[in-house]
Amino acid sequence: MADTTASSATGLANPLGDELRTTRSVKPCVVVIFGATGDLTKRKLVPSLMGLAKDGLLPPGFAVVGFARRNWTDESFRTELADGVRQFGRPDTPAHFDALADAFTFHQSDFGDRAGYESLKAKLEQIDRQRGTAGNRIFYLATPPSSYSAILQNLAATGLSKETGDHFARVIVEKPFGRDIHTAVALNDQVRAAFHERQVFRIDHYLGKETVQNILALRFANGIFEPLWNEKFVDHVQITVAESIGVGSRGGYFEESGIIRDMIQNHLMQVLTLVAMEPPAAITADAVRDEKVKVLHAIRSFKPEEIDEATVRAQYTRASFGGEDVKGYRDEEGVPKDSVTETYAAVRLEINNWRWAHTPFFLRAGKRLPRRVTEVAITFKQPPHLLFEGGKPLQPNVLLLRIQPDEGVALRFGAKVPGPDVRIRDVRMDFRYGTAFGGETADAYERLLLDSMLGDGTLFARADEVEEAWRIVDSIVNGWKQSKRRPDEHAAGTWGPERADALLGPGRSWRKP
Ligand SMILES: NC(=O)c1ccc[n+]([C@@H]2O[C@H](COP(=O)([O-])OP(=O)(O)OC[C@H]3O[C@@H](n4cnc5c(N)ncnc54)[C@H](OP(=O)(O)O)[C@@H]3O)[C@@H](O)[C@H]2O)c1
Question: Which class does domain 209-377+462-504 fall in?
């Protein structure tokens, strides 16, 4: 077993020193990327691996095999990846790629061709001998979901998914994980036919973000927040994932998923569970995921007749936004003129347990909203007796967890305006990650790739979490299908349709970050 050291895999110095080292032990391994000629590999996976190399977090025995159909050579594969690291990697990572380039090899085969897996097996054994990767493998499915089945079957049939002795074999599965509960259950069955649950890492890159992990730190490393973190003190919670871009050239793909499948089923539900869960007994994969899944169990499915009251869906329409005349969703390439696919959705969820009864959680996601922002706003109740401003309700206290951009935490509270009268105005206490800790933040994929090498599944979704999230989302999608109401509309560059305000109930309003 080899510890990570500050200059382990590439032999180059780690400029950030010991700060980023992990005390956990990363074993030598080979990462096999299925779909290695694709966009995800070039833009995210390899630049993130090089981020780990820069921080001295890759093990000394390390290699990557790219598996895809195209007629590429090792050389052309490396040239393409080097270009990706230059374009999308952190500063200085290209030098780490150059130092490690010969660890990257290409394996040409079709996913459905058994012989390609037999030759992959032989190649992996050769790499073990040459690079000391010791029979440890991670299979990354960076492919369209339609390919998962063939890959999983072939990995099982050739014995590549089997763990022998203390050698590990793990699989990382990309989103989307199914498109409803039936396809997710079927996919989980296929995954389980090849791998044990402990070998499976379902990736949701939101969980790799430092600020998402900070939700757990804020709640459970401090004594002051948790006593207030319940229905007695919290009026409601808003979770927002807003994008300013439209669907661009992905109209055809988006039309099949809509914002509810693309964002809410995975990212927003994951953030919701971290905000709402009970304290786990330990920060271990199963203890954390047991508590997260209990939150989902406590949210009941919607009946179709409830859906127009509990949700709002909408599409963006043509408008002038950011100095540009932008198209409406139904005019985008690949989108039918009569599309009812939502580009905006807001949902009111109730968590039926002792902690959260009577405290609604409002989830909202959309494209072509005014800004790209992800945040959680915990809005507190009014004080029991209003002494100031003639007894009028004041602006509520808000604890704001900013996940992106300007990562940090802010607390809004009332303060006395200086002067002879007692007037109250909102002020903010602000913690910014960048200011407090400095340095560059690693990409979410870096953390998740490292955790998969370490075999730590805490930040990955377990089968039951994914299925429970689909159960809730399916009930919304089914309600929309049965509803006579078409999606509302909102002009591109605005914070959603008017009807979304009514969803919150009296005295509440959506934040406009
Ligand atoms: N791109 C992103 O930023 C992003 C973000 C989040 C999640 N994801 C998910 O990640 C996965 C991959 O996305 P992507 O954008 O990288 O896809 P992509 O650009 O379409 O790449 C697909 C890859 O699969 C290979 N492939 C397809 N069919 C094959 C076959 N029968 N045999 C061998 N190789 C085959 C292609 O190889 P050839 O071209 O050589 O045939 C290519 O390398 C998807 O599940 C996507 O939803 C992507």
Answer: alpha beta
